[in-house]
Amino acid sequence: MARPSLGLWIIGAKGGVATTVMTGLAALSRGAIPSTGLVTELEPFTRLELVPCADIVVGGHDIRPGRLGDEARRMWVESRAIDPELLASAEPFFKAVEARLRPGTVVAAGDKICELADPALVALAETPRAAIARVRADIEAFARATDVGHVVVVNLASTEPPAARPIPPGWAELEPLLDNAAACPLPASSLYALAAIEAGASYVNFTPSTGSTPEAIRQFARDHKTAHAGCDGKTGETLLKSVLAPMFAARNLDVMSWVGHNIFGNMDGKVLDDPRNKAAKVKSKDHLLAAILGYPPQTHVSIEYIQSLGDWKTAWDHVHFRGFLGTPMTFQFIWQGCDSILAAPLVIDLVRLVERAHRAGECGVLEWLACFFKSPLGVTEQEFSVQFAALEAWARTHADHH
Predict the structure, then answer these.
(1) Residues 116-152 pLDDT 10s
(2) Would the pTM of this model clear 0.85, i.e. be above it?
(3) Least CB-packed of 77, 296, 330, 395 within 10 Å?
(4) CATH class given for the domain over 6-233+341-400
(5) 356: closest CA among 230, 233, 253, 227?
(6) What CATH number belongs to 237-338?
(7) Is the dihedral of CA 161, 166, 167, 169 positive or negative?
(8) Where are the domains of the chain?
(9) Strands (E), 137-292
(10) With pLDDT > 70 as the criterion, what percentage of the chain qualifies?
(11) What is the rounded average pLDDT of the residues 26-44?
């Protein structure tokens, strides 16, 4: 039997995370770097017969002008995050991907994202249905041209504002609204999700944007027997919260307040400088503490754009808790990480795992991928260790069935 191949179609293909994914895939394919950061290179995942990194073919959509390689080089020039030798040796990979890039859609993407887009794309007046049809055709053409076994569409685009109007819960009520841009409540990320589902591709939302979250879209995915997962990759401060908050709960310590202050300077930071876009991200970062502790402490999450930091993110957290005899105490931590370097291996993990689930005939929300997300679909459990145990249990089951 031929080895399964995999198409990775990236929404936001010219961004920092996307170009870091590509640099990583190019280096992993040549054996130029170790597999540090890849969950799928741990036991029991190595027994799942996942698609090798060398067999992942990349294409995608983006709304920005400019060359792919230039965006990747900014990870060195502005952020000092990727070895320039790795970027130079990835140049043939970028060139191949660039030939497969297509213009995305800015329908209902929000003003801030439209400011970044190619003006010709902003001027293209299309209905949501037309945008879905165009995106679907691009994904299907990619699958045919590359002859991959399955396509996984991953949303790595900048964070949109939350949906402005309620989204009907049923597909029958939502579907007629696709013909009218003014009446349709779906943002661009949801249009990409629908296009992926119609194309028979799996969909992963690595952003806090709406994506496949609405019940009507989940229903549409089940009807089309396609798999999806999301949302908002858990890479830094929230990952630490999901590990540390259970400690306070297990020791019966009373967390009175938890304040997190985040500063970073990449494109996502620039987009999140807009209060409307920021609202979606803050909501995603802030909800898990009450779920883990069983009560809502006073919380505050701030996100500030500091241009000079580039892709480096600093999170400072201040936890004020009460112990025995009512004595108040403080715990603080500072997390300094490179946003794209933390996110990119998780994207590769997700794509390989989702393709494996597709091979196993799974569809609908892949709840066992919860540990990768801040706001996992279909899951209320927020403790990282419990979420990771669910992922391991799924892997062991599928490894044993081989």
Answers:
(1) 887 887 777 899 999 999 999 999 999 999 999 999 9
(2) yes
(3) 330
(4) alpha beta
(5) 227
(6) 3.30.360.10
(7) positive
(8) 6-233+341-400, 237-338
(9) 150-155, 202-205, 227-230, 254-264
(10) 94
(11) 97
